[in-house]
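Holo model, 6-O-phosphono-beta-D-glucopyranose. Inputs:
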Amino acid sequence: HGQLDPFPRNFLWGAASAAYQIEGGWDAEGKGPSIWDQFTKIPGKTFEGTNGDVAVDHYHRYKEDVALMAEMGLKAYRFSVAWSRILPEGAGEVNEAGLQFYENLIDELRAHQIEPVLTLYHWDIPQALQDKYNGWESRKAIDDFDHYARILFDRFKDKVKYWVSFNEQNVFTALGYRWQAHPPNVSDVKRMFEANHIINLANAKAIQSFRELVPNGQIGPSFGYGPMYSFDCAPDNVLAALNGEEFQNHWWLDVYVHGKYPKVTFKQLDRLGIAPTIEASDEVLLQAARPDFLGVNYYHGGTVRANEIECPIQENEQELEKDFQATDPYLMKPKDEQAQTPETSMFTSVSNPHLETTKWGWEIDPVGIRIALRRLQNRYDLPMMVTENGLGAYDELKADKTIDDDYRIQYLKDHVVELQKAITDGVELIGYCAWSFTDLLSWLNGYQKRYGFVYIDRDEKDEQELERIPKKSYYWYKEVIETNGSDL
Ligand code: BG6
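Output:
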């Protein structure tokens, strides 16, 4: 790699997780239920009816997990706080035991020189607020979220430097309100755009509070970014890719960074009568909340063509595992092809004939991460942290208790090489948090779709002892960190 720039000296080599996916202890020490505690109990919603009641029991085993992080040499650990642990009712009384749990975790991380990266919201609004006023569909949620965020800012301002406001707002609004795949289990695109706007305001308000309470910290959203490609160089298709990029990505990112919705998509939504309701003071608030950095969650992008053009390629439908559950808005398509959707006349998604996919239908595209970072640097010009990237795969625990996940090593390595190229290009990248540190609950896919560096010995039916076993990729990443990526 003679011509490549080295990774920066303080590069944050990290790993990531989310509360509901790892903690368990769903009602421990005063925690209230979140919308996920309720949703996963609805029959037929998740693979084999799995839920996060126990998950990988990180709530009780965080010390063991942090010890494994320390042993690996991890520089940063991204986790999320469960709002309903701090405020069981979403608002009102603070549950000190919940705050104490995160304080202990943060102290443990810091004692091992691991930089905590704290996510305020990874999809788990308290059920109490869902019941009280429909959660994110009410503007009341803006103040309640701010109140929650301020409690954390106050308590951890001297211990946590990097904060993520919302995780993948694009994903949880689409899956929750449009595709009826996540809580609150709604399929109404108008409601999606309304809720999404309210979340934008909540994000902005919390960032304003952050400026006041944590002047030396850094905050930004983590966006699920997939670069849009044109199927080919037919100008109509290139235009469709522009539309796709705007509809799938800029729709959120422009608001985060510039406080404004992009015009083409807004007009399209307006024509369909599904544009969000914007009040007079909204723009002022949105524009006063520029983030310090962008968190980028990258798994794959999307390829599109113009709707009007007869596509000469076959749609290359993948043979998917029978238990496949679409968990990604990029893979969702309106069921009724005749229906007017926001995408109508903007673009049609197609498979990319150049890319292979995982067993769950996600394209594997390492160059896409470089394209992603380049596009984001050019358009938004903020420092970035990759806050998620990883491979969901079946892993085999062998009789000698080892896991040879060479495919994961290959996947991660290919992406990390592209990061180095992006840095060499001039992209300002401060860290990389692989998804995930331990195996965890894959929301709808149970425990079989594994992402971790550390295997957790449990499956859908049996929690077993929840033993932690480092995989081959764990030792690989340890070396990457030790050598600061100089020997990929
Ligand atoms: C991201 C989420 O969308 O992708 C994670 O932020 C999630 O929480 C990850 O686990 C992988 O998705 P899945 O559906 O394969 O678990």
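Residues 189-213 form the longest helix (25 residues). Residues 310-324 have pLDDT under 50 and may be disordered.
Archived with the compound record.
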